[in-house]
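Dear Dr. L.,

I hope this message finds you well. Following up on our conversation about the binding site, I have prepared a predicted three-dimensional model of the protein together with zinc ion. For your records, I am including the exact sequence and ligand specification that went into the calculation, followed by the structure tokens. Please feel free to forward this to your student if that is useful.
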Amino acid sequence: MHGGPRRRALARRKRPPLRSAWAWLNGGLALGTLWACAQPQAQPPVSASAPTGLEVEVAAADTLDTFSRMELLGQFDPATHSGFESIPSTWTDKNGIYLRAEVLEAYGRMKAAADQAGIQLVIRSATRNFEYQRGIWERKWQRPQYMGWQDIDKARDILTYSAMPGASRHHWGTDIDLNSFENEWFTSGEGADIYAWLTAHASDFGFHQVYDDKSTGRTGYELERWHWSYLPTAGPMLTAYNRMVGTSDLTKAAFSGALTADSLNVLQEFVNGIDLPAPYRNTER
Ligand SMILES: [Zn+2]
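The resulting structure of the complex is given below.
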């Protein structure tokens, strides 16, 4: 796995970084949001055969300029998607998890800088497709504590930290969960050092904590200090999601409580309930 990502990273370096994503944003298109996490994942390990340089260029262009409705909804397998790469085993405590190629490249640069500063970043979760997110959702739906609850109350409670399948930023291959799923962990000792470093430097590499403490007035999921989003790709993906995905894509999907996506206004309140830095706020929906 080592030769693969490195060789491909070199091939990609020829392309102007972030240019198409920024051009997209500067074009005045919209944007919105994203969403939530918690929970490790275990997707089936698949061997990624190294593509040629040309294939990589084409795949990279595809992932930055065009997103299909199905991939925005998580209806794909990252192990067989040409725009995705396996995360090196030394960067994560999971086996066989994936990110979009340009996101993995940016993360590699951020990790190298963190290493230099004595900060040890660990990826706990990355791409999760619809099926994986449905597994998280259904496990929570069956919790004994929800016995006798109305569907809408169950869904609202699960949405505190977990996205509905079809409405998760983790579908996009742009978002990662780092080090710990406990906000508290990031408030003292090593966790506080890591969080301080990320807050100061992650934006230099395109990453942003989209689920902040809500002091900026955003709606949706609660604070997640572990969830970081690669905005040069996630920004355009949110725009595409808002244009191509409707509430009926959620209410018609196969998971418990899907119909509540309408009354809970999941697209507006959760998918678009994120904090974004100034360059990404110029949105229309
Ligand atoms: Zn997350």
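In brief: The longest helix spans residues 101-116.

With kind regards,
A. P.
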